[in-house]
User: Fold these one by one.
Assistant:
Number 1:
Amino acid sequence: MNKDKAKVRQILDALRASGRDSLTAPEGKQVCDAYGITVPGEGLAKSAAEASKLAAGMGLPVVMKIVSPDILHKTEAGGVIVGIKSADEAARAYDTIVANAKRYKADAKLDGVQVQQMIQGGQEVIVGAVTDGSFGKMVAFGLGGVLVEVLKDITFRLAPATRADALSMLDGIQAAEMLKGVRGGDAVNREALADIIVRVSELVSDFPEIAEMDLNPIFASKSGAVAADVRILCNFNPKPARHRPAEADIVKSMNRIMKPKAVAVIGASDETGKIGNSVMKNLINGGYKGQIYPIHPKSPEIMGHKAYKSVKDVPGEIDTAVFAIPAKLVAGALTECGEKGIAGAVLIPSGFAETGNHEGQQELVEIGRKYNIRMMGPNIYGFYYTPANLCATFCTAYDVKGSTALSSQSGGIGMAIIGFSRSAKMGVSAIVGLGNKSDIDEDDLLLYFEQDDNTKVIAQHCEDLKDGRAFAEVAKRVSKKKPVIVLKAGRTSAGAAAASSHTGALAGNDKIYDDVLRQSGVIRAKSLRQMLDFARGVPILPTPKGENVVIITGAGGSGVLLSDACVDNGLKLLKPMPEDLDAAFRKFIPPFGAAGNPVDITGGEPPITYMNTVRLGLEDERIHALILGYWHTIVTPPMVFARNMVQVIDEMKARGLVKPVVASLAGDVEVEEAAQYLYEHGIPAYAYSTEIPVEILGAKYQWARAAGLL
Amino acid sequence: MNKDKAKVRQILDALRASGRDSLTAPEGKQVCDAYGITVPGEGLAKSAAEASKLAAGMGLPVVMKIVSPDILHKTEAGGVIVGIKSADEAARAYDTIVANAKRYKADAKLDGVQVQQMIQGGQEVIVGAVTDGSFGKMVAFGLGGVLVEVLKDITFRLAPATRADALSMLDGIQAAEMLKGVRGGDAVNREALADIIVRVSELVSDFPEIAEMDLNPIFASKSGAVAADVRILCNFNPKPARHRPAEADIVKSMNRIMKPKAVAVIGASDETGKIGNSVMKNLINGGYKGQIYPIHPKSPEIMGHKAYKSVKDVPGEIDTAVFAIPAKLVAGALTECGEKGIAGAVLIPSGFAETGNHEGQQELVEIGRKYNIRMMGPNIYGFYYTPANLCATFCTAYDVKGSTALSSQSGGIGMAIIGFSRSAKMGVSAIVGLGNKSDIDEDDLLLYFEQDDNTKVIAQHCEDLKDGRAFAEVAKRVSKKKPVIVLKAGRTSAGAAAASSHTGALAGNDKIYDDVLRQSGVIRAKSLRQMLDFARGVPILPTPKGENVVIITGAGGSGVLLSDACVDNGLKLLKPMPEDLDAAFRKFIPPFGAAGNPVDITGGEPPITYMNTVRLGLEDERIHALILGYWHTIVTPPMVFARNMVQVIDEMKARGLVKPVVASLAGDVEVEEAAQYLYEHGIPAYAYSTEIPVEILGAKYQWARAAGLL
């Protein structure tokens, strides 16, 4: 890509030297020229021949205007001619304009005639760039005009953006159809627009002092795109970049922390009700097999484990230190941990940034940096890692092993995760509290869980991302291998205000979060309950091999609601059903049952009808996923249905036919037991809901598409 | 309002006589003129004086054009002059044009000069009308232009529309801000636009043969609104109107059906597994106190009740007949019911429209009409009416009395209602299956529940509304008294297709449903589970007396998510918190707790902190509703919190301080018991969800606003 970096450097250095922070229009134009961003051509002609040459060079048509300090009202003076369509015409226009000007004011000083490319209609669009507090340089695209401003129809990508990113932006706005040519109009030149987006994104990345940039409007047409107006704002004092260890170092530290050979409990206690007592109990009763070292200023032994005055007195190596001491003692103990070479500090204590004690927290950050200790918290409940039987927390123990790793920024949400998990029998590999996130952040956890074979799905609740860019980069890679689910709190303006009074963190622009998360392949949960349902259901579903979804239902009414849910969740029903497949389904259902899709087997059918139709759905290779709508009847009771479904699916699995299946159960309370049985056998199933099972299947599809598996 | 109905009648009669179905542009203009809808003025001038008079009469500026069969290229001939700003100028223009024309073609036949009002910029909008299969005449409003077409930004109201309806439409589009003047532009004349909407809505109501109408574009400006193009399509063979008894008759019949003194079971049986046996069992075991008459061709007695061969043999009056016989026997038995003067037939049997047997269903409709029997179904599970201990159904009995009346079009959804109710201990007054809706429809039920003192909230699942207009009219009135919740299935195109294969009913345009339901004051549930949660939670919440919502939370993280949910559900947080109130809250919470709104009392607080802050929230008259975010800790266990909250609320209630309170509980599984306890004491509370309690509060507010109580 042709880029004259030296030219831009020169302009920006001059700007800085001048003490200004925004470029003038001509300076902005020069920057655009240097980066190959098309702006309207213009030039000053001193003769008819020059006018002719300029016009031919910049592309016709052109508009020509007298340039004279003595002529203010150019039009009145006959000093403006628009719509000049040829070089010859430009030469004649030069003479006409000069003659008119002289006639208008004989003694006027004439500098020449400005020749300017005329922008021709087309679709007005905007390309811009901003510097986000969390994500850094972002490039933006939207339609131009007042209406679009009112509708706030704009989309963002991390800068620099690839050509593919840029093209995806053109489809990423609500009014994307406008670019494709409506009412018989021409489509805009997508390549030209994508080119501008890429160039803007590179410009702001190459020159970090460019804080904001607007090309508004750009006129996009069939033939190309021209930026009619340029606005560039600089910030020569950007905030320092976040310290971030190398990925290999992060993974190494995180492995020691999450799978420690030895854990110290700083502030361990024999006294019931103390946090240091709860942590000891959870470590011991949770079944942790490594060394446990209680640290206490006086006691020689705590709960059967030899106690030490300091971690430095412990003979062997320690990987993880859990802190259960008052805030004011943390810094001292942390220094000792550093001197001991401990990998990670689990900082349960509160009393830092969340209470306004930013200095105290900063002190910890500096100690951690100095000794290369990674810190979880402060202000957290700790963490669970079930494969190591590790409950490094003061909360109640949790031991249902599974493949979902969860984390929460907030302690309350962490407790909700534990309660839901226990109630819904959700298997988890880890639950981690991140609290104030003085150090360990969502991206550190992603790096660990990426290479952790015990984890198949990662679900994270967060209020902000301290380093959204690092998160996005890691998530983009990890989400190709494992579904990443994020509940971003503080989505709305009211929510964001609460986030900022809660953690002191500025919640970012939600549209930016939304775009970045999607581009990173992350599944964004809309609610706490949805995050939990996704965390529970997504890992047990096999990955679909294609887009064709079929609904098989005993309740026609469920079929309608399940169809609604499919559209809401981006699922594609196999439609029209191929004739032979339709006929095959019809063989199993009553003549008045509706085939097509949903396959409505009708309510009064015996278990065999569910089995036959589901077996067909699993066997036929044109079908890639099934949604079941069960209707509780005397003929087919809930547990009979549930066992039969598991039997058919296992039978097909033995034949190598594995497809995602979810179920919605309508019926009396017995359907709850059936739903749990189905879940425990690999079928996310919900009683009294036609939406949740489809949302879960939709999430699996969203992930599979983003990961390039579909 | 000035309306020349005779003129429109004359034009439409002429259209009908001509065999056409669409009006020409001049005819459309005449219709607009007759109804006072402003269209651009125009006329043919045969002299300069006439031109002058025409121009002055229609409003300036005008454009003038030569009218001659011999001049095709008017502009080339100098036959067009635009922007004529005075009557004098018009006279001169007439002469110029005629002179130019003669010079251009000496022998041209000149008919005169057309004088046409020039439409001046402004905002392009569209007003139109359609005839919907369910709702009948609808008036539509949207912005004009391609972009808005792409975004499908349009809103509908039932025609005729009131002035208030029309004004609400201007605010009812996504891009409403465009009408208010953006970037310093003028706001459009709202009165003029509303006037056109009202006039169009009256026109199509006065002349039902107008099937579709478009005024597109209308140019709306500060000074007024002019329809530049008119399109009117007629249909002279409209479908016949639905038969509908008088409201008093409906209520009378429904009262007999829902609270019968005597019930006949046609097809009663002693044999377990038969529908007629289940119905008998449910009637008897459900505790129904009225007369039960089994009808059976042979048995002299069934389950201890004397049986009869026909309802006609029963000595006393019968109000309700429950049918449990094969489809082919229904018509005969129904005729006997008619002869016996029975008020209602509960048609459980399937085998009618849902299996393609439309004739069979039509036969029932005719018998019902003839004898004035109201029919529920066919193809239903029956109904429950708990105040009468009446389980007129073959499903399992349900006896948890309460104040929500539910209905479902689908049997499967009915079963889900029963299961959810039992599981969540939701009190209900009625559950009704409507099935094929051959006769009794959602609006009949609304009329009954409106006057039923046992019912406080009505929740209905439907796939279509056979007579949407009747529903809307009744719902608009009923919803002023009692919240009406509707789950409209077949929302999306995929869903609608399933609906039509299921019931043979064409699901209407969802945007029309959405607008009409909102205008009728109906709360539209987004999902089955949401309908059920609303049905459970909305009736127990007191009606708020103002818009100021305060969140009190132990978990800061919940506070952020609860704030998000407030915005999502249209709730207004009291912000900024008045200084004295903020100070009052701060007295109860730790110094590092965040006051403001959410009031973050922090996680480690004892029960008294929750009590003090909630008491303050209930006492202060500037606060109208509370959302509680509880965080499970050892210091404040779930049931302690729950009991304390109920105590504080009861204490305040005794002082006449009654406000809606909902709660989100984050914690281990014990929070589920606490949530149920809170619900049973008037506080909708949910474990592991920050969204559902806020959605329920949002629904209550939505209702209160629509009912004019706020």
Number 2:
Amino acid sequence: MSQERQRSPVRIGLLGCGVVGGGVLRLLNENRSYLELRVGAPLEVRHVLVRDPKKPRVAECRAEWVTTDPEVIFKDEQVDLVVEVMGGETPAHSYLQRAIAAGKGVVSANKLLIAKHGPELVQSAISRRVDLAFEASVGGGIPIIRTLREALASDSVSNVHAILNGTCNYILTRMRDAGLGFDQALAEAQKLGYAEADPTLDVDGHDAAQKLVVISMLAFDARIDPAAVHVEGIRTIDSIDFRFAERFGFTVKHLGIGHERGEKLELRVHPALISKHSVLANVDGVLNAVFLNGRALGPCLLVGRGAGDMPTAVSVVADLVDVARSRLEGEPGLRTRSIQLSDRALVPRDDWEPRYYLRFDVGDHPGVVGTIASALGGEGVSIEHMVQDGRASTAGDVVPVCIVTHESREGSVRRALETISRAPFMKSPPRLIRIEDV
Amino acid sequence: MSQERQRSPVRIGLLGCGVVGGGVLRLLNENRSYLELRVGAPLEVRHVLVRDPKKPRVAECRAEWVTTDPEVIFKDEQVDLVVEVMGGETPAHSYLQRAIAAGKGVVSANKLLIAKHGPELVQSAISRRVDLAFEASVGGGIPIIRTLREALASDSVSNVHAILNGTCNYILTRMRDAGLGFDQALAEAQKLGYAEADPTLDVDGHDAAQKLVVISMLAFDARIDPAAVHVEGIRTIDSIDFRFAERFGFTVKHLGIGHERGEKLELRVHPALISKHSVLANVDGVLNAVFLNGRALGPCLLVGRGAGDMPTAVSVVADLVDVARSRLEGEPGLRTRSIQLSDRALVPRDDWEPRYYLRFDVGDHPGVVGTIASALGGEGVSIEHMVQDGRASTAGDVVPVCIVTHESREGSVRRALETISRAPFMKSPPRLIRIEDV
């Protein structure tokens, strides 16, 4: 095959033209000749599917491309690749099914869709011998999927610790650095556009859980139902927890965690205490990070913007180049068929065995510490540090008692906490934050 | 092309079978079926070039592969790919030229070779329409070349700050955390196998400079002579600098730095003060890191082991998969021909404009601070902080005066330091460490 041979263009149908779609069109235009060199053929946009054709678009979106009819794209045999940047589950799911069925390569930036339907879509793509690429569905501009799929082609991952939600990370950073409460920090994030008016998906951890599920597809070859992943958000983190964390040499981060435990996987999403010397400790503000351990590679950390139109568009275009290449190679689907997913059982919560930070808000009773320590000891939970800050001077005062445990089974810790909860000196439910060595 | 079609194997000649070569053979063996799926054909080792055939090798190295004659490999038309893991400039350079001339795809883990001869080898590979991949030549297991080449296909890099030498990073980490002096920390690193008996290449910064040159090929499309890069090592860093750095909110790291300045490039390798809240500040011990800013992508940090047999072998195998793919695609050289290098002038040292940490060891003279401040002010260098630690109590005492400047032209700073050097109160030459906002 000659280098100079004129290759016919790779033709693209773009589903959605919001900020990410606009960014993709801009990057395709700005990097036209370089991308042609990389792909070995020109990349040519043919259709752009929008809901409202009257809405103003980026200058790079030509009027003749715009359509409101998805069938125009799926039925156009000239269209080689479909790029989905519309988001949401419906109708994006059926559009991708249609595109794959029509034999088109697919690039998707849709986290929810890939987390919920990724395994099915991958399977369809493999059967239909087309590629499905989804770097932009997780971690915005962080090349995590590419790294897992390609850089670690001859390696396997033993565990992952990831900061997957920019909103949570921003709020926790501000709580730590400016001493803000959760509500204040959230309000500030909303004002700056880092949090939605309804922040539930972010601050309650569901967004991070979806990303962890997508990462687990590549890191652990695992088909996981996002609803099965244990998820905790950051609403219960208190300013006082940052002060105690600091005192014990930790900081608080919201993490998505995956551990391979023999045949099973331990997947969990929750706030965690990590050493303030951890490489993850300084990943602040809206930055995201994925820290993984490859059995041969050792530790590998990737940090970047987890969201944003241009970082996401850069990832979409990188995928587009790959899928276009597969197409021209005459072996479409090659990159996708190495994704071999199987169901993997999750380690039940009671069997997790991290260390714990426990906080008890207690009143002035004699024998408080003894009662707490005995309850933990009775369940085999051993204490590494204990700090009681001052003493209650009147009967109404509340004093926090903080404990850092050694590694313990979560079932045991929970049983001890139930016992302690019933003690008369307890002023509010005990708080538990897991400690991660990362 | 059918998915089921039996593809003839991609045949490999391995040059060198030390720890990295042994690791490559192990990974190829352990991941045989997965790699075949990824490549679309089996990967088959055909020859292993060694100097001493009697030396014991890893079990995966079959006796019938071993040869001491490189021509056996270059002349074997069945060999598709040559993997060079022998290191050194000679004879590796001529071997790669031979391999390329013979139309074979090439993977190299040779930093020195790529830094010095990469542009020439890339040009030869492009002319001969073969691929030359060299991820493992820089940063061991960190997928930096892949990220620059693929993830950022539609983006450009404005600057890079990188921790590129594990020996330097280990020594600086121990000086900071254990209060060791340079010599002690070096001795410890040597004992642990993190530093060579002759540590010159590492602690004087030349190893980092070679890696910066390789990164600049991809990040800035630049053909740079490694000898032209300004290099400083870490021998002059003193424990006291860590104490002052800490006081000003900084830590000390040895960095390779690249800034695009219009048409020119500012490339430098030296110790630097960075904020202790920087994502690079916690990259400790032997870890390496590359922190880059993409114009569209924004900040992107990659951290991992910068050396070691298995991390490097993982990178070699990842490259091997790519080059094998190009070969099977019928479009070998595709990945390499997007590397378009041009000569780029370097910004002269006097025109750099960072902030500076300056330390003056002074005796007890009246007007010391005034003299120093006036000399700096006379050159337009403005002072942000100044700290004098105590006072000399006897004439022989030495007191350090530390200054943090605002951004200043290095030419001006150097002229001021020359003036100050001549002052009678100066007990030793002034120390200068640049401050990087990263």
